Amino acid sequence: MSLDRRAELGEFLRSRRARLRPEELGLADYGGRRRVPGLRREELARLAGVSVDHYVRLEQGRTLHFSEAVLDAVARALRLDAVEREHLYRLARPWPQGRPEPGRPEGEEPQRVRPGLRRLLDSAADVPAYVVGRNTDVLAWNRLAAALITDFGALPPRQRNLARLVFLDEGTRSLYADWWDKARDVAAYLRLDAGRHPGDPQTARLLEELDAASPEFRAAWAEHRLKDKTHGRYRYRHPVVGELDLGFETLRLPDDPDQALVAHTVEEGSPSETALRLLSTWAESLPVN
């Protein structure tokens, strides 16, 4: 399973057409029973102000040489948000001639975390925090993050991966009270990341592994969601301290947009703050990464 640009472009556009209803957009129905949900291709082309043939060639990936004006019009017609619009442009615009598509060639140096960022993680002793890289690889973490999620340092490097943990590890599944919400978010983040690096062989191997091993991943992936989740909340059922309701903030690193710092937050004076303090005491027994 790999992310072929042309195939992904078609699936993406069809999924976005399917979520729109003609009556909500002021379109007269052409009549007849609809075989698929959402807008027909000719309706979308009409909304975008392009010919049906032009749109069909885009959706079928017959060419990747569409102008910015056409893509803007299609994005507006599909009501794409900023993340979805970026995904469309990455899939539908030709990569500059003579340059390889973004990927990670075999044998390339592994992802690195700057020493200063590791020191920042360690200094944030009362906040669970970690750095996630390409393909949801967990690259660095502090003690409290290891105590909250899993002892990353005890895992083989290949297993320090949020997607593998969420979809394939029973302990991680039981940790999240709203596991399916977390799973859908991870799949949506992974699809967005894969669209940024369609030539990455490590991405292809990860997708093949998850597709073969997890029916839940296949279901989440089939939703064609895209999410660069910058903040939110998750509920945890921790085996040591019980339930925690934690927020999180995700900050992409300006010098390496493939890496992001994820830091959890807790409401002051809440039961979750008390539980997090207990977890912090327990975390002192864990090694620093």
From TrEMBL:
Residues 94-113 are annotated as: Disordered. Residues 101-112 have a biased composition (Basic and acidic residues). One of its GO terms (molecular function) is DNA binding. InterPro entries: Cro/C1-type_HTH, Lambda_DNA-bd_dom_sf, MLTR_LBD. PROSITE patterns: HTH_CROC1. SMART domains: HTH_XRE. Pfam families: HTH_31 (PF13560), MLTR_LBD (PF17765). Coiled coil: none annotated. Residues 38-85 form the HTH cro/C1-type domain. This is XRE family transcriptional regulator.
